[in-house]
């Protein structure tokens, strides 16, 4: 077979180009250690994501400046949203889907992976400066695909915490009884957290300075005299850092039953449900309380 | 005509990617063109091409006018 | 008396004509949907619900990427085999059978897609890739199967012609056009095994409710087993036109027959074991498998680079035969007024640009930046949307007189059409590529988000949108001119003054090609070995990880209309259902 000289030259140049491409990419992954999305993770059951990572999608600290983010994608949202991480951190994302194929793509970056039900995508990302990144799903996932978006907030070190706050108080108390407001604060960071737990009720503020060790949970109860507040509805709010949990307590003259608040509430709602059996709106309002009451039994 | 009408049309078509990409290329050297400036530049370039193609009708008019096609 | 194709092969000309017209009908509908999407995405004109966008997109993808291209190429291949072997098909009834099967398949596939626009339960808005767990109506999958079986029979028809010819010409080399058809067909047979397995073993039984679930990664991998080589199934006929028509129309000969054969052999060998490069970002496939796919993909650049050389060299030879001189001066001597030539040359030029964006896609690491962004849409509108589509439209201006016996309605309109396509695609594709670099996703009805905005380095997203809309409008205009020409030609009366049915001679002929190049069994065997090498371990690993039928999935028929409400309120309804259950429990406790 005779090949023209120019064509031979061209052939050689083409081969050099091809081998060059392969070489640069090999260099990137071997020498520079750029890892790709692969098969590092075990498979999961998409319809029941009840392992400790995905049952509670969140950001967790695993080392100094090292974090793991457990993310689920589902029609048509990401959880958690926004995902908050500190600056100068190394974050490993574990992303999976509850339903169809999605993607998890940080706009304008090379942080990009397919999210396939049953598979967990793993990606380690270094974030330097504080910035807000949009997250899109760039694989068609159903008729509302275009509404599926999320955010990754890279925040300054000092604004970042992994505090979980949960505050509880009875809905109704009798005048004269104490209102017990219980605040549960979890510090999910590895370092101790120095903070203030503050309760605001009526016009009064109660506070407590605490130090919670890394990974520990702190529980405190504020007992407030209901007489001072007087009869009626009172809004309360517990604040820890940027986190707030709030609700309303009603101080009544006399409770209908002698039983304590919770059981009472339960019977109350049951009666309510019977009366308004046909009325949807009230029914929905009552649902949540009912469910918790039902659990108690 | 320096080139055939068909070739002229194709050459003008070729200016489209040049103009469109010129803006991107110039941005690398910190020259930012607006859309209007790009359009004016494009029309100018097409004008120059037309002049170049149509102007020198002086020599060998008879043979040249029969298009090369 | 002329020597047109219709004079030599009147019966075959009818089939080829029918295939072309079927292809143009798909092009017309698909093109119309194209402009609808352009205006919807960019926000210039939204007359439909955004959920319907995905039905439009499904139809656009299937009709253009599958129906338009494949109907056209079976026409071209039938022409190539009959012309180059100089013998009619063995049994014209068989030829009509496969054509008919392809038509039935297309119609069956189109029914559930178009039902997506109505209130009916039926739908298949699953896009061209139909990734499970999105589920289309069974008819959608069934139609695709029939269509593919039609193409298999078409391939059998071409092989049958070749075998019959070989009996009569035992010592002759396979004529180049037939060689190209046969290698492409073999590649297609291997490639379609993937989609056939995906549909017949998994998706169709699943959509019929015979199996409970599927392994989404498995069906997706099987799709791309087919999904990448299908690209070469579109591209090979365009290459064939560049090899055997372009040199002739340039006024010369093909530079080298042996290298043309080498190129097609390389495509046969390397097209299939590359599909995983569409899955660089898939969790569940080891990096090593992705690396193998990337290496194969990079080597697949070789035949395209060789083609670039041969095509340009052949054009230069033609130009010099026409009196062209100088280093670049010969360019002026090319027949630019001929729409067939101008269209193919412009398509080839666009393909060079597409090659560059393709190299970016192929790089495992850079791919992360552009994967599933608008960049990819820009890329394949240069490849299938221009290199293939524009070449097909350009050669239509040569083929139409051949298969109808009528003179082309207007050569000037034809030239304007191909130039307009080039300019329109320049605007549209450029903006798509740039938009992709900003992170704008593909396949979305409204790439406008609430929480953030895309930031353009140069200009603005608004300018990109304007560029896309302008490009789309020019492309639509180009299509209108194309159809005007097709219809105008069909309405013309028969002409006796038409060019003969010929293709290009070669400078370096088949006698220069080593005999081994014609050993199709050998190349097929190598191709199969490479496929096994590239795919058996990934497939086994996917099955081992996720199971043959995958995990339990929520079935998600993607229906528009009532289904839309179901899907958009899915979260809410789950909550309400939980609430209702709770109420039921309480009620039970209370009573």
Structure notes:
The complex is a heterotrimer of chains A (297), B (69) and C (591). Chain A has 297 residues and is of the alpha+beta class. Chain A is 21% helix and 42% strand. Chain A has helices spanning 5-30, 226-229, 261-275, 280-296; strands spanning 59-63, 66-74, 77-79, 83-86, 89-97, 102-106, 112-115, 121-127, 131-136, 149-155, 163-168, 172-174, 178-187, 193-201, 204-212, 217-225, 232-240, 243-252. Mean pLDDT of chain A is 83; it is low at 259-297. Chain B has 69 residues and is an all-alpha fold. Chain B is 71% helix and 0% strand. Chain B is elongated. Residues 61-69 of chain B have low confidence and may be disordered. Chain C is mainly alpha-helical and 591 residues long. Chain C has a single domain, classed as Cytochrome c oxidase-like, subunit I domain (Cytochrome C Oxidase, Chain A). Helix content of chain C is 70%, strand content 2%. In chain C, strands 1-4 form a two-stranded parallel ribbon. The longest helix of chain C has 36 residues, at 50-85.
Question: What is this structure, in a nutshell?
Answer:
Chain A is of the alpha+beta class.
How would you summarize the topology of this molecule?
The complex is a heterotrimer of chains A (about 300), B (about 70) and C (about 600).
Chain A lengths: L4 H26 L28 E5 L2 E9 L2 E3 L3 E4 L2 E9 L4 E5 L5 E4 L5 E7 L3 E6 L12 E7 L7 E6 L3 E3 L3 E10 L5 E9 L2 E9 L4 E9 H4 L2 E9 L2 E10 L8 H15 L4 H17 L1
Parallel strand pairs in A: 2-5, 4-10, 12-18
Antiparallel strand pairs in A: 1-2, 2-3, 5-8, 6-7, 6-9, 9-10, 11-13, 13-16, 14-15, 14-17, 17-18
Helix pairs in contact in A: 3-4
Chain B lengths: L4 H24 L6 H20 L6 H5 L4
Helix pairs in contact in B: 1-2
Chain C lengths: L4 H4 L1 H33 L7 H36 L6 H24 L18 E2 L2 H31 L7 H32 L8 H12 L1 H16 L1 H5 L3 E3 H14 L16 H13 L1 H21 L17 H24 L4 H4 L3 H31 L6 H27 L23 H31 L14 E3 L11 H27 L9 E2 L4 H7 L1 H21 L1
Parallel strand pairs in C: 1-4, 2-3
Helix pairs in contact in C: 2-3, 2-4, 2-15, 2-17, 3-4, 3-5, 3-6, 4-5, 5-6, 6-7, 6-8, 6-10, 6-18, 7-18, 8-15, 10-12, 10-18, 13-15, 13-16, 15-16, 15-17, 16-17, 19-20
Organism (chain B): Natrialba chahannaoensis JCM 10990
Protein name (chain B): CbaC protein
Keywords (chain B): Membrane, Transmembrane, Transmembrane helix
């Amino acid at each position: 077979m005779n090949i023209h000289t120019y064509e031979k030259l061209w052939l050689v140049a083409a081969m050099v180009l091809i081998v060059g491409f392969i070489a640069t990419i090999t260099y990137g992954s071997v020498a520079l250690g750029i890892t790709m999305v692969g098969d590092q993770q075990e498979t999961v059951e998409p319809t029941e994501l009840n392992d400790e990572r995905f049952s509670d999608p969140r950001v967790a600290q695993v080392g100094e400046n090292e974090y793991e983010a457990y993310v689920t994608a589902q029609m048509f949202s990401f959880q958690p949203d926004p995902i908050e991480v500190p600056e100068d951190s190394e974050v490993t994302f574990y992303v999976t889907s509850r339903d169809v194929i999605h993607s998890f793509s940080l706009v304008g970056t090379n942080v990009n992976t397919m999210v396939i039900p049953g598979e967990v995508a793993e990606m380690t990302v270094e974030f330097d400066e504080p910035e807000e990144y949009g997250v899109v799903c760039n694989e068609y996932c159903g008729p509302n695909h275009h509404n599926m978006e999320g955010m990754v907030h890279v925040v300054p070190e000092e604004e970042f915490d992994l505090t979980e706050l949960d505050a509880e108080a009875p809905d109704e108390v009798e005048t004269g009884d104490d209102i017990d407001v219980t605040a549960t604060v979890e510090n999910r960071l590895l370092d101790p957290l120095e903070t203030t737990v503050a309760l605001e009720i009526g016009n009064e503020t109660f506070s407590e300075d605490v130090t919670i060790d890394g990974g520990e949970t702190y529980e405190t109860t504020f007992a407030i005299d209901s007489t001072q507040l007087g009869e009626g509805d009172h809004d309360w709010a517990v604040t820890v850092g940027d986190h707030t949990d709030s609700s309303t307590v009603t101080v009544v003259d006399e409770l209908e039953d002698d039983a304590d608040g919770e059981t009472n509430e339960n019977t109350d709602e049951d009666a309510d449900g019977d009366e308004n059996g046909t009325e949807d709106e009230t029914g929905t309002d009552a649902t949540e309380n009912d469910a918790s009451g039902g659990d108690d039994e | 005509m320096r080139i055939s009408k068909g070739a002229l049309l194709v050459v003008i078509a070729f200016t489209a990617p040049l103009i469109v990409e010129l803006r991107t290329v110039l941005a690398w050297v910190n020259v930012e063109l607006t859309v209007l400036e790009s359009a004016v530049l494009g029309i100018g370039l097409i004008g120059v091409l037309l002049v170049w193609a149509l102007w020198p009708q002086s020599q060998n008019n008879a043979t040249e006018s029969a298009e090369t096609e | 008396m002329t020597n047109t194709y219709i004079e030599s092969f009147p019966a075959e000309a009818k089939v080829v004509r029918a295939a072309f017209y079927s292809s143009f009908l798909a092009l017309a509908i698909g093109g119309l949907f194209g402009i609808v999407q352009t205006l919807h995405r960019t926000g210039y004109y939204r007359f439909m619900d955004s959920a319907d966008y995905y039905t439009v997109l499904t139809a656009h993808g299937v009709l253009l990427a599958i129906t338009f291209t494949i109907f056209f190429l079976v026409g071209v291949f039938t022409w190539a085999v009959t012309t180059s072997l100089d013998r009619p098909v063995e049994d014209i009834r068989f030829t009509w059978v496969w054509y008919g099967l392809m038509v039935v398949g297309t119609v069956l596939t189109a029914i559930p897609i178009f039902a997506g626009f109505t209130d009916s339960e039926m739908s298949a808005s699953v896009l061209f890739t139909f990734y499970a767990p999105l589920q289309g109506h069974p008819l959608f999958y069934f139609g695709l199967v029939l269509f593919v079986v039609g193409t298999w029979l078409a391939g059998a028809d071409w092989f049958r012609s070749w075998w019959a010819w070989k009996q009569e010409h035992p010592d002759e080399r396979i004529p180049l056009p037939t060689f190209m058809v046969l290698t492409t067909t073999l590649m297609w047979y291997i490639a379609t095994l993937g989609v056939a397995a995906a549909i017949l073993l998994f998706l169709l039984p699943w959509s019929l409710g015979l199996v409970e679930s599927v392994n989404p990664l498995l069906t997706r991998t099987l799709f791309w087993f087919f999904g990448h080589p299908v690209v070469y199934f579109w591209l090979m006929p365009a290459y064939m036109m560049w090899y055997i028509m372009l040199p002739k129309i340039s006024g010369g000969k093909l530079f080298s027959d042996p290298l043309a054969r080498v190129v097609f052999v390389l495509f046969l060998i390397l097209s299939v074991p590359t599909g995983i490069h569409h899955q660089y970002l898939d969790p569940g496939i080891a990096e090593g498998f992705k690396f193998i796919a990337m290496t194969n993909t990079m080597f697949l650049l070789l035949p395209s680079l060789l083609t670039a050389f041969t095509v340009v060299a052949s054009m230069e030879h033609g130009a010099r035969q026409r009196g062209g001189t100088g280093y670049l001066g010969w360019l002026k001597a090319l027949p630019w007024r001929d729409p067939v030539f101008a269209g193919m040359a412009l398509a080839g030029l666009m393909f060079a640009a597409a090659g560059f964006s393709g190299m970016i896609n192929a790089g495992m690491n850079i791919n992360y930046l552009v994967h599933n962004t608008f960049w990819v849409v820009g890329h394949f509108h240069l490849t299938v949307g221009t290199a293939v589509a524009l070449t097909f439209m350009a050669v239509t201006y040569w083929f139409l007189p051949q298969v109808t016996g009528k003179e082309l309605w207007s050569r000037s309109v034809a030239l304007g059409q191909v130039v307009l396509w080039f300019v329109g695609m320049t605007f549209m594709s450029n903006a798509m590529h740039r938009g992709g670099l900003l992170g704008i996703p593909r396949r979305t009805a409204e790439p406008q988000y609430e929480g953030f905005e895309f930031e353009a380095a140069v200009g603005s997203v608004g300018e990109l949108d304007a560029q896309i809309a302008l490009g789309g409008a020019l492309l639509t205009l180009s299509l209108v001119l194309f159809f005007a020409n097709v219809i105008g030609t069909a309405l013309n009366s028969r002409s006796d003054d038409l060019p003969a049915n010929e293709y290009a001679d070669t400078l370096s002929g088949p006698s220069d090609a080593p005999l081994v190049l014609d050993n199709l069994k050998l190349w097929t065997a190598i191709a199969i070995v490479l496929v096994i090498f590239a795919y058996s371990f990934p497939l086994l690993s996917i099955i081992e990880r996720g199971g043959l039928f995958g995990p339990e999935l929520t079935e998600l028929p993607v229906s528009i209309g009532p289904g839309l409400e179901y899907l958009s309120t899915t979260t809410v309804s789950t909550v309400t259902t939980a609430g209702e259950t709770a109420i039921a429990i309480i009620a039970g406790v209370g009573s």
